[in-house]
Every structure is written in structure tokens, then in C-alpha cells.
């Protein structure tokens, strides 16, 4: 569960009104949450500014549907396989709220000073009039999300009788004995429920009145609260039949159901990894392309359970693992220097990912026991496709000749970049390779070593060079591969 910080701990600008009278004098207008979001969304659209920062790959598909739903004032469900960015997308909607909004200071809910809804606030507003104290809440404090789990209770979402309030002398019939749950506490804000089908059906029923009549019922109390909120939910398609389902009356009360998807092309897949991965070493563009192709190949494989999907976290974790492998290799070889150039990943660093990532993929029954073998095959294929895309048509006879003249070229995690370069010497066509792979005109030793190892691996995969694995961990490229 994620709840934004307590509004009282966030200082607001000093020039904002602090009483109801001052608020009225300032000309402030009260808008509902959905009106607020719609107005701010339209303003960003007119200005041509980003509306959902950090969301990749949805510009022409998901986002137009989402904008239409928000402009219509609909509560909505985002439906899609795991790792498609549903939660990330939901969180960006917070940016469409006003930065600061007024609330009744000291009230249990974020009630607008013009429109108190709880008995205590209504009473205070009548007693104090224009002297009613006003506080200001930042938009980040107007958002909460709850991961729907089977043990989630009505009390968590809606509320329950607070025994401490009863002990203070209030009677059980007093509505002020209610301790409000997350949904009413997000009055005038956004409430998100992740994995909604995992919520027990009897708990889903508790949300029916919130979506339609906008009131809450707690243990026999019928407390009419004119709740003002935007309710969002996420769900996986298979959840409708495997782990649970969204009950039909609740589905009917959501104004929209929007389908999400994985990146539709290779460039978007790469852009997503670039944005999200936290890398401890340089991951060259050609290796980033390998990982993007690998992720897409796993998604399309018949051996993988397509209903489960392959999360974007798969490619992000792969990129981070490859970068970590490069850092480890460079450190063990004495190539790291806090003030020097960062380590650069090589294609050999990729070979480690299949063992660590297999747990992120659900395989069909006929693939069980062969997970690593299947992933290794798809990874080799992705390397070969990237090699053809980047180096196809380049004259690489100089590399083949240079390898054939000696005893082969040794590489691997125990071979520093300088040693790899020394074995090969000056090779015709290297400058073209570096350019095709996106390296600078004057690359460092680690850049050149990464380019050379990728070139050799591609020549091996296209059967122009042999490849042997030695007991000491080295990999040797050489021979004609026949």
C-alpha cells in the first residue's frame, strides 16, 4: 500500500489564504476532482506540453483513450499483462491535479472549506463562519494506492468502528465513531486499486456505492458522504478467469476499460530500457538492441505462456545485470578507476542473464526443464539479428584474416580490454564497425574491445569463425568454423 505524506507536514506557500473569509475574498472557485483534472488536461493539450511524463509507447494507442475518459469524468480500469506500465501511467495522472488545494484545517478528510461533508466539519463551519481555518494540501498528498490482496478488508478500504472513539464516551450510534478507510480519506483526490480482481468479491461489493451513489456504509451506519474522487484500477486479463474476476456490477460502474500493451516496436522497447534501467556501467546501443530483441523474442515464443506475458521489467533487469557483469569484470581485471572512464559492457557479459532471468518468465508445460536452453537459443538469435542489422554489408574480411593469422583471439571476463586489443592489432574496417555501432570517432579501449568482441561473436554465429570455451574461463575465436 502507498499513501502520500501527511498534508500537515508539507509547508504551503505563505501567500495562500488561511481562513474561509480570506479564501472567498481571493476569488477561489471550488471544482470537483474530475473537473480539476479535465481543466488542467485541456490546458496542457492547448500548450502542447507532455501530459503523462515518463510513459513510453502509448502515445498513439492508450493515451488518447485515457484522455477521452478523463475528459468525460470517468472512473476507469487499465487492463493489460504484467509489466506494461499500468501503475506508472496511473501515477502520472496525479500531475493533472492542481498543485495546491484548500482543505478545512484539522478535518479528518480533505474537505473543501466551501463544502464540508462530515458532521464534525459541518458543525465547525456553522460555528466559525468566515474564521474557519484553512490549510493547503499538495497534489502528491491527494493520491493513494492499495494493492488488492485476498486479506484486504472492508475496513481497510471503507472504514470501521473505532473502539478508541467509543472508549472516549461516544455511543455506538454516533457516526463520529467511524474510522475512515482509504477510499473516503482520498476525498477530493485519486484512489488507485492495483490488481483489482484479486480483491475478494464481497469486498468489491463495498465499492459499488462509492462509484455510483458516492456514499459509504460501515457496520449498519448509513453515513451519506458526498465523496469527490477519481477511482482508478488495474487488472491483468487472465485474472478474469484464473485468480479472480471483477464482479459484473462493479465493472458496469466503471466508465471505461482501457487496454494497455507492450512496446509495439523495437525502438520503443529500447527507449523504455534507457529510461528505466539503473546502470552501473555503459551499455552500448548495439547491446541494448540485443536485449530489446531478446525480450520481444521471448514474448513471441510458443514455449512461453502468452497469457502471463513478459514484463518490461524483464528487459530492464537484463540491462542492469549486463551492466553489473561489466563492472564486475572490469573490477577483477583492475580496469576500474573512480576518476577514469566507466566500464563498457561486451557481448560476453550478456551470457549470464538467462540463468538469472528465467524466473521472470512463465513457460508452457512442454518448456519446463528446458528454460535456460530455450532462453539461450533466443539470446543467440537476438545477437545474430542485431549483428546483421548493425554490421550487415560491412567488409569484415580484415577481422577474419587477422584471426586466422594467429592462434585465435581470446576474450572473456578474465581478459582486460587492452589485452583483447593487443591480440588483434590494427584491423582494416574497424573504424566502420565503430561507426556502425555508434561509438565515438576516438573510442576508448573499453569501447573498442566491446565493438571487436561483438564483431567476432557475429562472425561466429554466421559460421565464419569457430569459437571454443577453455577451462580457465576464456573464450577463443579462431578457425573457419567448419
TrEMBL record:
GO terms for molecular function: protein kinase activity. InterPro entries: P-loop_NTPase (IPR027417). This is Magnesium chelatase.
